[in-house]
Amino acid sequence: MRRCTRHGPDAWVPVAVAAILALAGGCAEGAAAGEAGPEGGTDAEGRHDADAGTDAGGDPGPDPGLDAEAGDPGIDLPPFDGADGEEDGGGEADADAGPWCGDFCDPFSIVLLPDTQYYTSKQSWGPDNTYRKQMQWILDHRTSHNIRFVVHLGDITNNNTVDQWEIADRAHRMLDDAGVPYSVVPGNHDYLSPFSRSGTRFNDYFGPTRFAGRPWYGGHYGGGNESNYALFEVGPMRFLVLNLEYGPRKDPLCWAEEVIAAHPDRQVIVVSHCVLTHGGAYDHNCPNVDYLVPGGHGETIWDELVARHSNVFLVLCGHVGDSELVPRAGNGMNLVHQMLVDYQFEAACTAAAPASCTAHCQDGTYTGNGWMRELVFHPLEGRIEARTFTVEDGNAAVFPGGRPWFFCSPADPVGPEGHRWYPSDPSDTVHQFSFDHDLRPPATDVRTDLGLRAFTDRTVNAVGTGDQFAPRIAGRAGGDFVVVWEDDSSPADGAGNYDLMARGFAAGGCQRFAQIEVNPTTAGQQRAPAAGMAADGSFVVAWEDDNDGNGVYQVYARGFRDDGRERFAVRTVNSVAAGQQRHPAVAVAPDGRFVVAWEDDQDNDGDLQVWMRGFEADGSERFADRSAHDDDAGNRRRPALAALPDGGFVVVWEDDGDGNGYYQIHARGFGPDGAERFARLTVNSVADGQQDRPAVAADAAGGFVVLWQDDQENDGNYQIYARGFEADGRPRFADLRVNGDAGGQHLAPAVSVADSGAFVAVWQDDSDGNGSYQIRARAFTAAGSERRAEWTANRFADGQQRAPDAFLERSGGPLVVVWEDDMDGNGAYQILAGGLDLSP
To answer: Which stretch of DSSP H or E encloses residue 167?
Structure first.
């Protein structure tokens, strides 16, 4: 009996896996080809972290023979045989030294508990409670089946109510009292409705304190236990069970990577409630779009965690009523078996025969009928056996004549996507199967990300209260980046008074340094941040500041090292303090020298000019304040800057030098000392209407691209335009409209350019005119031809997404987009970021 995967139109086995499977025992036959914390103590963030130094599961004692016994499933399963034969997949034993597994070569098992939500919501506690029966079966068979660990797959409760959690608590207390190692993970039903990350009673009953002191408990992420890990050993076989919250956010995924890295000699089992769906495809609906929270879906868990680590061999999930097994090769060509098991929609049927049970799937009485799964590990054979059974076997109140049967398939056997449910016969190989896995201790974990830096939408701000606006991003070669934003989360200075925050990230979206406050003086207002990063990861933030609350703004700047520590103290950028100085821009050269530009009304006449000043990397002056345009006629607003490799820069701005109320986009190039490199030029070719809100970025040769929002038809509807230039200001490509759909509004453009000159444009888009904005993006070559067609950068389209910025890594591959987001429509904005790989 050997089964590697369920095959259907939505299931696949990568081509590269076929060879692996063939070597492992030919399990690829018939498969469809497809697409290819340190241990001990408590860390600085207060996360408990410990490795059990002994067999956490405890010695189950002498084996009584492991024969089938009273209480074993009545399904046609082979007996639980405790004596493995000669080595098959585990390698040959040394005749003198004995088998590699020593005294631990007998089969052992872990037990899987899929969604128990209806045993807590539709049944009361007592001898007939199915949850209780499942726990009792584990206790009764702990010795005879050599059970070493129990894994709950989530959806412990159905409605997150106290009475339901009380039942779950009593059920697991049975394992606690017997010292049986187990782990739990929340499912979507274990949270409040409407969904809220903080709205769960999970930690009241299964928080870290419940497991403190348990030898198998390893630790947890953050203050709760929604993501946690456990450790158990069977002789030389050492395992890590890594449990991830429902729809895991990026920070728990990053924590999970740290945990795996800290246990390189462990074979890793990853557990999360929602990973696979019908047909073996990844579930892309977790978290559900209606929940309106950022988080990863099934493929996120694969791409951003599982595929990267060579010692991950098993992924377990529930959530979807089905049984699936999908092998897939990780980045290091290690074979990972991904398993879905969940029978929650099965209802009891007292008919005389299964054929009469035609309305017993997802009807009002369904609970799951006690189905669960045991994974039996055969060390000498190098094989893992899945045995699916029910604790209601023999109960005529649940099955016809007490004989177990599945009832969901007759209700809806096949949908358009292929297998929707599963075969009715419990002995079918969809329910009873095995697959090969070498259980010998692995070589140390090897992390391989293939240079991929994509990550699903993540929240940037660490504090979710108040409003967070105006994100700006800066990065360096290799993909590290920093995000700065306006933040109104602090109650210290009152609602509506903004501070500036920054947070650093490594390539791929994991935190490099924790959120810091940019402005040391928090009184008054600090707004409109701008940021630039040097090649060594140090960065500069500039902003407009009214810390004395008199309504008059100055421009400040502060420098930071790559770890977020101060590099130079806050300094005032503008030398003349009279009047208003607002809307700064900053450009940082690879060596750390920087320039700040701002709009300036130092003579208080209401006409704004663009001024700029240059600085050394340590914050000392490089050149004094000077005008970007030399004359002072009319209004010049909203400057933007691009740094050049030699320390020179390009400045662009909105220009109404003739004072007629209509703005054009002007640009001018300068050398490192502030001397003119090319003369002032008009960027937009069509002068009709309004052109405003410019953005600019430069490539390694000094060529640059300018974006702006354009209403040349003067009808109030803006389009996004781009134009490219050589380093000397000569045009590289003509004006082109960036957005494909000309209807509605397209606003707030931003641009990032790779060394080659390839660039990405992002903007907020309401092309359907419904008043709700999304973040749209489009990629181009250096010549202005399309590299990638327009796409929506934000995963969730609900609510508002506005004010984007972008960082395209110098190679032109990894891209990060940031924006302010109110997906739940409550009027409070957070800062989100998402990563994409644009590499060919």
So the answer is: helix 162-178
